[in-house]
Design the sequence.
């Protein structure tokens, strides 16, 4: 395990501070470290004549500062400050310059974190009948547990993602603290004896589980160069989709063998094991946070109080009230005022809603019509994951050819390069809904509907990937977490309601030999119409981005 993973982890930071900086030292604190001349107090006087600090280096400082997208228009009296930045484009402390193995390992950590908490969203759905009997409630009330979790999952990033964009907090500490609370919440959820308490606990669990899905993409971006970001996001997204797909699978086995409460004991074990690993080996990767820490170490080593960083200045020059307003208002602002973000959010919200609707339609067809057992039902949910894996195996080579290779050749690309794949994904998504609905008959084999599910999930993956990449390429990197938080807010709050009335859509439109055909077709018609959204971006994307103050 690389030394930096332990040194910059939550556990490493605790040991570092409790030991008075004796253990897990950084290079700037080692005795043999040669401090660059520009960081000494008398550097400006040596340059003489009242020149700007680091006159020979000012262009580099400004350029690097801009590369972190945190530059402000400093006043004349602020030119004496020394802005700490990466030591050149190949600085090994910059997460984007880590060795390939370290970057891949970090992405897998974030992906596994996402899977380990996101399984909780629908893990208990195979045991809903047991919950209904124990708590004496109907189907809609029993489904409130899914609604509460997913709804809170959308609200959480409004708090956590903007906090992760502040140099004080960074990403790692937020992941660990919220994951710890999530783990603890699994205990009362497994022991609760009334439906009200169950729903409240599910809401709290969703709120504290939320950072990884919204901020996870931003964390991947922290360690990945633009050339390889689409492939890296695809790898992380497999973990995001695997959670909801594998949750009902494990939930079915646990509900049958041990009862529905064992779903949450299982979540305690899985998420607890994840927390232990990440507590020791998940390093901080947010550039402004790392640079702020470096600035403080250099200030302590040299005694030069002119040393600072962009992140420190940003916090020092605003009141706490201003920081709070800007931080927590930003995701809402980009949702309301940015047409690109709003339309993509609505499109993905529709896709997300259908994904959760499948958790309701599977029992209607596979159990009620085909007589599947609960465990067989759980296995059928894995078709969602199979579709994603197939799509990923095609997507990565295509995006490498369309995106990575041209960039390596120095060709100029625009965010719209991703849109054709999104249109293909939208077609697969809508087509899969029609295939599922009209092949799910009372007299044909059940493999046809599973093929429809795989087409739908493949289309979902392609749309998620390309539209997420489109968002990432369209907006400044320091606002990435807020843009993704906006997306998470809209899609989760809308999708949360679908499990409550999802069964009614199919039950009220069923016909004798085609129990879910018209319910699926309604969704298919909506999905077909919404393909117009990526087409709009393909034709008018530059004009829409030109109106945005957050766009690149």
Sequence:
């Amino acid at each position: 395990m690389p030394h930096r993973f332990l040194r910059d982890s939550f556990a490493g930071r605790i040991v570092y501070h409790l030991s008075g900086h004796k253990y897990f030292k950084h290079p700037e604190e080692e005795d043999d470290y040669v401090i660059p001349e520009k960081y000494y107090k008398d550097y400006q006087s040596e340059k003489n004549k009242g020149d700007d600090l680091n006159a020979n280096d000012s262009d580099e400082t400004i350029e690097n500062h801009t590369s972190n997208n945190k530059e402000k228009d400093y006043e004349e009296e602020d030119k004496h400050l020394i802005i700490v930045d990466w030591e050149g484009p190949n600085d090994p402390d910059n997460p984007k310059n880590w060795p390939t193995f370290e970057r891949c390992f970090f992405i897998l950590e974030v992906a596994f974190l996402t899977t380990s908490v996101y399984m909780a969203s629908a893990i208990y759905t195979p045991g809903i009948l047991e919950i209904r009997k124990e708590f004496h409630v109907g189907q809609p009330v029993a489904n409130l547990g899914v609604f509460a979790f997913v709804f809170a999952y959308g609200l959480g990033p409004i708090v956590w993602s903007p906090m992760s964009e502040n140099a004080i907090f960074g990403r790692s500490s937020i992941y660990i603290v919220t994951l710890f609370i999530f783990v603890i919440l699994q205990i009362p959820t497994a022991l609760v004896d009334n439906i009200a308490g169950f729903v409240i606990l599910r809401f709290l669990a969703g709120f504290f589980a939320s950072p990884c899905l919204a901020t996870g993409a931003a964390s991947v971006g922290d360690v990945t160069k633009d050339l390889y970001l689409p492939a890296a996001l695809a790898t992380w997204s497999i973990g995001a989709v695997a959670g909801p797909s594998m949750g009902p699978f494990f939930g079915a086995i646990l509900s049958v063998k041990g009862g529905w409460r064992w779903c949450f004991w299982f979540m305690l074990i899985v998420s607890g094991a994840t927390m232990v690993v990440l507590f020791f080996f998940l390093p901080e990767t947010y550039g402004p946070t790392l640079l702020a820490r470096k600035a403080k170490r250099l200030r302590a080593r040299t005694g030069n109080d002119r040393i600072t960083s962009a992140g420190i200045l940003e916090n020092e020059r605003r009141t706490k009230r201003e920081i709070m307003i800007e931080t927590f208002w930003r995701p809402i602002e980009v949702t309301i005022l940015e047409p690109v973000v709003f339309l993509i959010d609505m499109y993905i919200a529709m896709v997300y809603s259908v994904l959760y609707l499948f958790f309701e339609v599977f029992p209607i067809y596979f159990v009620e019509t085909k007589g599947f057992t609960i465990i067989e039902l759980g296995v059928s949910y894995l078709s969602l994951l199979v579709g994603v894996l197939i799509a990923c195996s095609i997507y990565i080579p295509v995006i490498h050819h369309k995106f990575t290779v041209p960039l390596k050749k120095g060709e100029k690309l625009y965010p719209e390069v991703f849109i054709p794949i999104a249109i293909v994904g939208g077609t697969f998504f809508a087509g899969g809904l029609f295939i599922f609905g009209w092949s799910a008959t009372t007299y044909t084999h059940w493999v046809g509907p599973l093929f429809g599910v795989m087409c739908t999930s493949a289309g979902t993956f392609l749309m998620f990937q390309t539209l997420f990449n489109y968002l990432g390429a369209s907006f400044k990197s320091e606002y990435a977490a807020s843009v993704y938080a906006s997306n998470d807010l809209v899609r989760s709050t809308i999708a949360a309601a679908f499990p409550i009335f999802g069964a009614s859509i199919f039950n009220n439109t069923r016909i004798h030999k085609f129990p879910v055909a018209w319910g699926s077709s309604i969704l298919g018609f909506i999905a077909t119409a919404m393909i117009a959204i990526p087409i709009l971006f393909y034709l008018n994307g530059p004009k829409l981005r030109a109106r945005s103050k957050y766009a690149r």
User: Anything to note?
Assistant: DSSP finds 25 helices and two strands in the chain. The chain has one domain: 98-285+326-546. The longest helix spans residues 229-258. Residues 135 and 193 are 8 Å apart (CA to CA).
